[in-house]
Amino acid sequence: MPSTVHLVDGSLYVFRAWHSMPDEFFDAEGQSINAVHGFTRFLCELLERAQPDHIAVAFDASLTSSFRNAIYPAYKANRELPPPSLERQFVQCRAVTEALGICMMIDHAYEADDLIGSTAWNLRMQGWRSIIVSADKDFGQLLGEHDEQWDYARNLRWGPTGVHEKLGVHPHQVADYLALCGDAIDNIPGVPGVGAKTAAALLTHFGSLDSLLERIDEVAFLRLRGAASCASKLREHAENARTYRRLTRIALDAPGVSTAEALQRQPADPAVLEALCEQLRFGAFTRSRLRALLR
C-alpha cells in the first residue's frame, strides 16, 4: 500500500461547527468563537485518531472569488455570505491549523476542492495515496485505485467502488453526472428533467457527457422513462451542460502542494500555541490536548 496523505476539507468542518456548537464561547475580546471551538475539537480528534505524518487542511477564501464565478455568475449565489463574526472565526481556525504545524492551503481563485484535487493528483504521480476528509460528493471524482474518502462525522470511508455504490457512476464520470442532474448546494441547475437516476443511466450507456451529446439522437430510443422528452431537453440544454461541467469538474492545475515533504507536520512553536490559547480563552482540557499534539 502506498504512503498516505490526509487532505482535509477545512471549510466544511468550520461550517458544521458554526451550526452545531452553542454560542457560548468567547475570545479575549468578547467575540463569539463557537465555530473555532468545534473545529479545534474536530482537528484534535482527527490528529489523535489518525496520527497522520503528512496532512493539509484546505480552506475556501470566499464564496464569490472562485474562477467559477466568472464562468457562471449564479454559482453558489443561493448561499448567504458568512457574517463578519464567522469570517473572523475562519481566520482563527486557520491560525489553529498552522499552530499545530499543519500545512494550510487557501487561494482566492481556487476553492478548497481544487487545492485538494491538485495536491492529490500531484502526489499520486509520486506514488502517494490520499485520504480526503470530507462528506462532499464532489470529491468522488478524485478517487484513484488506492484513495479513500472519509466522512468523519459519520465515520464512513469508501474508495472508487463506493462512489459507484452511492451515485451509480464511476469516479471519472462524477463531474459529468453533476453537470447533468445539477447540484443544488452550488446552485448548478443541471438539465431540466434529468434527475440523479437518469443521469447515472445515461452515463452508464454513453460513458461520458461528450459521447452522450454527440449521440443525442439515440436517447429517444433508450428504455428510459420519458426518453423522448429527455432527448429534447438535452438538445436544448447541451451547451449549458458543457458549461456546468466546467463548474463541477475539480481543477487539477490549481496551486496545490507539489511534494509530500511540504505536507509533513512541522515542529510547532509552543509559545505561539500558548498565546493563541490565551487569545481564544481555551479551557484547560483543550489546551492540554493541543499541547499533547505538538511536534
From TrEMBL:
UniProt keyword list: DNA-binding, Exonuclease, Hydrolase, Nuclease
GO MF terms held by the record: 5'-3' exonuclease activity; 5'-flap endonuclease activity; DNA binding
The keyword DNA-binding belongs to this UniProt entry's keyword annotation: yes
Coiled-coil residue spans: none
A GO BP annotation: DNA replication, Okazaki fragment processing
Residue ranges annotated for the 5'-3' exonuclease domain, each copy included: 1-266
Source organism, top-level taxon: Bacteria
Protein name as annotated: 5'-3' exonuclease
